[in-house]
Amino acid sequence: MNIVVLCKPVFDTEAKIKLKDGSIDSSGVNIILNPYDEFGVEEALGITEKYGGEVIILSAGCYISEVVIRQALAMGADRAIVVEDEALEGTDAHGIALTLAKSLEGVEYDIILSGMVAIDDNGSQVNSRLAEILNIPQVTVVQKLEISEGKAVCERQGDGTTEDIEVQLPALFSATKGLNEPRYPSLKGIMMAKKKEVKQVVLADLGLSREDVKPQIEIVEYSLPEPRQAGKILEGEVEETVAELVNLLHEEAKAI
Amino acid sequence: MANEVWVFVEQKEGKMKKSAAELLINGQKIAENLGQKFAAVVFGNDISEVTEQVKEYGVEKVYLADDEKLKIYNTESFTTVMTDLIQEEEPELVLFGHSALTKDFVPRVAERVGTGLVTDCTDINEDLSFKRPIYAGKAFSTVKFTDQRPVMATIRANALGAGEPVGSKSPDIVDVEVSVDDENIRTLVKDIVQKVTGRPELTEAEIIVSGGRGMKGPDNFALLEDLADVLGAAVGASRAAVDAGWREQEFQVGQTGKTVSPQIYIACGISGAIQHLAGMGSSKYIVAINKDPEANIFKVADYGIVGDLFKLVPLMTQEFKKVLAG
Fold first, then answer.
1. Nearest by CB: B140 against A171, A223, A243
2. How far apart are CA B288 and CA B270, in angstroms?
3. B95-136 residue pLDDT tens
4. CATH assignment at residue B246
5. Residues of B in contact with A157 (CB under 8 A)
6. Cβ-based neighbours of A135, under 8 Å, separated by 6 or more
7. Which pTM does this prediction carry?
């Protein structure tokens, strides 16, 4: 049971976002493994612990943090393929999906696992696009996954629904919170990770050029939200403050 | 090459989803500004009522794919039918609501058709550039399509704001042929369990009452449910409450939960960590009830009361009941 796990290094959730020369300023920002991808790594490890096989970390981008890749390896993944190429600068979801697909040529896999969304770009596209290019079925937003010979039964979170879905392998699954509890890398795992194979690849190795990953969407500008101002703190006896609050919402804000 | 603006109208159990109305109203204005024909696209089975509902929004055409194969959502069927339709009719712009359903199949459609896609947009500009939140809403990017067509976008619920429907323009109903090879359907939906909360969905709710660590336990959420009942609200939770096992994960609001944009978000016993704000920061009004005057939530709340939520919330329920009845 060979499993490929898509991993994306992203800004820490605590990071304050600043702009510099109109672009997102990454200076001083701590980089972590996308939290949703962590569920993918953990799930892959659980499956291979049961059925045997390899867990391969796959990542693609302009610059890929080695620390993050080694973290996934330290959790227990076996090896990694990292496509790191300046030519991916400014590319979009299609460009990334194409790059990932090409890097899987010649790789045998039964399952591709991924986080359902990257908390930086918030795109939620690469998964489905990758499954389309590879011509394999997909189940997104998976909160439970059970594998048996050649097929998977999973629980998907719909809008206000829970869906039981059966799918033939190979297939792609995107993980949501609740799928599992990701393990912390052990000291032993961290030491072993240093020796595990990280295959560094550029677009040319995949037979791709900058033209092939040319974006279909271009950024016009980045902006920061208007900071919310603190409002009114109501003071007084409980009955008074509640009456005032209800009145404000009903009469002033006309919201209720 | 059809000069058409399409809105994909999501339906549930034969009725138009609430969020579709806002999308139709905005889509109609965009079509008018562009001087293009405005059409609705509806998928499902036995959905004639949806067609009737949709007519009120000034659509000039309804592409109706009414087939047993579309009765239950399935990635492959929806992807195939939408792709075929787009390739046949070549619309200029296709708008979708941003939902679990569209997040699943629309990127696949975009890849198959060979066009770009902008997701979770909170604004559409006159020049057809799209504004969307990134980094959990801590920043925004405004993006534009290069030369690919159709332009495709998924739009966040409650983000665009809506006016009134323009009324019926007696649209043509186009029956879409549904041609899906059974062997291409590789996922089998064995069961769908509808969460019956009797409340609006979090991402579509106008009012949300939400609880955090300050709720001190699962049973106390009954207080929030009582308030929610009076307000017709949804009930959310912070990560702390979910991780403690007090509420189910699908009701978590925040960076690793749902992003909501209600008219009113009432945060009870929620400190207001940056990751929680990421999920509800675009609410029109934020109300905070917390016994800690230093709580971060008060920095962003429009109205706040520093006090004991176990006293305040029941009083709020009573007071709203009075005011809304009278």
1. A223
2. 8
3. 999 999 999 999 999 999 999 999 999 999 999 999 999 998
4. 3.40.50.1220
5. 100, 250
6. none
7. 0.93
